[in-house]
Design a protein that fits this description.
223 residues, globular, 11 helices, mainly alpha
């Protein structure tokens, strides 16, 4: 911090610290609330193991960094004002969540998944890439994340805040998101928790499929 304080006055540094703490607090409340990101990370973590959950978390983290990035450069406002584009994104995101929900419901009827696969399935070729892609698309296509980031970068962050600081906030959002969901992946695969979920493997897939479908329909209908 000495180098930073050398170039920035204490008053300005305190202003940035206040912004950062506000962003961190709001982000924590948002990321901890149930939603598409939570559902897909939870599903991948339990169905395919911790490694798949971590890769899904990385995809979600990259997604929120993309949202934050175009808010920093000013495209977020243009996107929300372009009603047709915004509504189209909502439909695409909703359909994608419904697609994942159908996949989960279909998996619940497969004998190999009825008891939930072992974490070793995460080592199969393509599972990491698939998990990363699902996390990325689930977050990147969700226009509600656009609105969240836009609120942060227009209400919380002052227009006078340097772009370098704003980019720092964007990186923080990605890192904090990854840390939260990677931790969720870890707890989902604790022996006691996993065994409890394995006992109702088929029902777990049905519940997660229903949740993803409901989130998808809500996103489309709510437009």
């Amino acid at each position: 911090m000495p180098c930073f304080e050398r170039w920035v006055s204490p008053k300005v540094s305190e202003s940035y610290l206040h912004e950062f703490l506000t962003i961190a607090g709001v982000h924590l409340l948002a990321v901890a609330s149930p939603g598409p990101d939570f559902a897909i990370v939870f599903r991948q973590s339990v169905a395919l193991g911790r490694r798949a959950g971590v890769w899904t978390s990385a995809g979600v983290a990259l997604g929120i960094m993309l949202h934050a990035s175009y808010c920093v450069i000013g495209l977020g406002v243009l996107l929300t004002q372009a009603t047709f584009i915004f509504d189209t994104l909502k439909i695409i995101a909703g359909c994608y969540l419904c697609y994942l929900g159908v996949l989960s419901l279909r998996a619940s009827g497969e004998p190999a998944l009825s008891g939930l696969p072992s974490p070793s399935r995460a080592a199969l070729p393509g599972v990491a890439a698939l998990s990363f892609r699902r996390g990325l698309l689930t977050n990147a296509l969700n226009p509600k994340v656009t609105l969240f980031c836009l609120a942060l970068f227009t209400v919380v962050i002052k227009p006078t805040t340097p772009s370098t600081v704003q980019w720092g906030y964007a990186v923080y959002l990605g890192v904090a998101t990854f840390a939260w969901f990677a931790t969720l992946s870890f707890f989902c695969n604790l022996p006691a928790i996993r065994q409890a979920l394995v006992r109702g493997g088929a029902w777990f897939e049905r519940v997660m499929g229903a949740v993803l479908l409901a989130l998808g329909v809500r996103l489309v209908v709510g437009r």
